[in-house]
Amino acid sequence: MERIFSGVQPTGNLHLGNYLGAIRNWVKLQNEYEDCIFCVVDMHAITVWQNPSILQSNTRETAATMIAAGVDPKRNIIFNQSQVAAHAELAWIFNCIARIGWLDRMTQFKEKAGKDKERASAGLYVYPNLMAADILVYKGTHVPVGEDQKQHLELARDIASKFNHDYKRDLFPLVEPLIFGPATRVMSLKNGSSKMSKSDPSDLSRINLKDDVDTIARKIKKAKSDTDVLPSESAGLKGRPEAANLVSIYGALAELDITDVLGQYGGRGFGVFKPALTELAIAKLTPIQEELKRLMSDQTSLDCLLKSGADRARSITDPIIAEVKEIVGFIKP
Ligand code: AMP
Ligand code: TRP
User: Fold this and answer.
1) Which of 32, 72, 121, 239 is spaced 20 to 30 Å from 293 by Cα?
2) Which residue, judged by its Cα, is nearest atom 8 of ligand 2?
3) Ranges of the chain whose pLDDT falls below 50
């Protein structure tokens, strides 16, 4: 059986990269797959320090953003990770399956831990094991993510294979990444060769989904570009990472191929293209923002929705975690 699982961290500041690289694809997949589970991964968030009350509001806001962007909480399961204990239980077992050498290769750990890795939390180091558990505790088969998560998904496959091999079972599927769409890697507005990221110290580097009209306009105006006009063919974007990024953001928002965007704007300069991009971004983001505001004004309903998602999630994980415990040799209650 095919089952979609994906997650997003509740670290606030969801940006255009999260939307175009991940959440918008989930909206599409819900029409193609019957069984989709989307999780706000609050346990992953605390691998770096989180202020508790801000974590709570970010968790609600992240779930609300998914819904405002079009993920239907009735057809899909939406919940926050910490409400379903089986994620943590399976993660512990995977801590004992994954090898230190495998984790040592993870580039996200190296990036997030920075120079002083002795001071990073142990949780940050085993983060990919929890991610593998998130997916496999549902026997998830397909995982829609942005390109930056590819390495973690390869690790999830290695963990599933080693578990199946060590315990001589064919229990866990080998997950398939679903990395598709025109914006699998949205780049920073300030530097076309680094990824748009929540953790970039410069807010001008990203368009946050919550930015108001004036902020979006200002950020696009200040985005790094160059003095040339846009080419008429995509080959002409080679060596122009900032121009390529702005064109691909336009294409992703308008749901047009790069060739079509260049067909329209080839030969025009950024003085024309940037205002057009601004108008488009505002037109696409404003309805999401309005719906987000409406959802956030009713915390009780939102919490109820997360609880009901978690109840539905547990009905899937209960038998799977019981099976895993039995295979591992844990005595049942
Ligand atoms: P995170 O915010 O790190 O939890 O990421 C949530 C989802 O957004 C994941 O599927 C990421 O791969 C995706 N994502 C994050 N940043 C970008 C980006 N700059 N471009 C495309 N996808 C992204
Ligand atoms: N690590 C992912 C990110 O930072 C979030 C995540 C956690 C996830 N668990 C997952 C994504 C399971 C897909 C499947 O973007």
Assistant:
1) 32
2) 7
3) none
